[in-house]
Amino acid sequence: MGRELQKRKNRSSISKVRRKPKSKKKIIHNAIVAQGWDKSQTLAQNYERIGLAVKLNKHVSAGATAAEKAKRTAPLAIKAKAKSDHIEVKEAKVERDPETGEIVRVVETKKFNPLNDILNSDDESDKEEPQAVARTDIVRELEKEADRPATRYKRKQSENEKQFIAELVAKHGQDYTAMARDIKINYMQRSEGDLKRRVRLWESDGGN
């Protein structure tokens, strides 16, 4: 019985529904990014090479070495302390005037560390130099594009709307209350504020 049903299905004129495979083609809307895109690489690899972050709050390591990347992503890496308003207590050796007792010069300055804590020592070798942010040519072009002032869109009136406004202005002038109450021309019952905006746009376009 099963084979007979299968034969009927094969002879049926109704075509089988087949789902199209999902396209793996990446659609890139930005022309600058599209120029530097490598189809043989993954999205994360392309973004890293270009100098963009795939996820938010992630380090951008374009052009960085493997050691620098490992240093940034190390889970036990000691992060630099944030600046605060707290004043650090320090020790200083000074030289005083034997007669007046005034401080003449500061001989030595070091961090206040009464317990001789190694982690609290004022060692210059522990200070990390600020890392320069790697910027590629594509990132610079994207920054230039972002700095350009956005062009403001101005709505254009259709010919029917222009004719509609022209008839109202010819009949009522600047009386927007009468325009709103004119059921014959203003059959859509537009409000006074709406008509005022449309008249201003019509006048800015030349009133034709």
TrEMBL record:
Keywords noted in UniProt: Nucleus, Ribonucleoprotein
PANTHER family listed in its UniProt record: HSPC111 PROTEIN-RELATED, NUCLEOLAR PROTEIN 16
Annotated TM spans: none
The protein's name: Nucleolar protein 16
Biased composition (Basic residues): 8-26
Protein family: Belongs to the NOP16 family.
Ubl conjugation keyword on record: no
Biological processes annotated in GO: ribosomal large subunit biogenesis
Annotated GO CC locations: nucleolus; ribonucleoprotein complex
Region (Disordered): 1-26
Any Pfam family hit: Nop16
Main function: Involved in the biogenesis of the 60S ribosomal subunit.
Subunit structure: Component of the pre-66S ribosomal particle.
Subcellular location(s) per record: Nucleus, Nucleolus
Organism annotation: Piedraia hortae CBS 480.64
Chief place of localization: nucleus
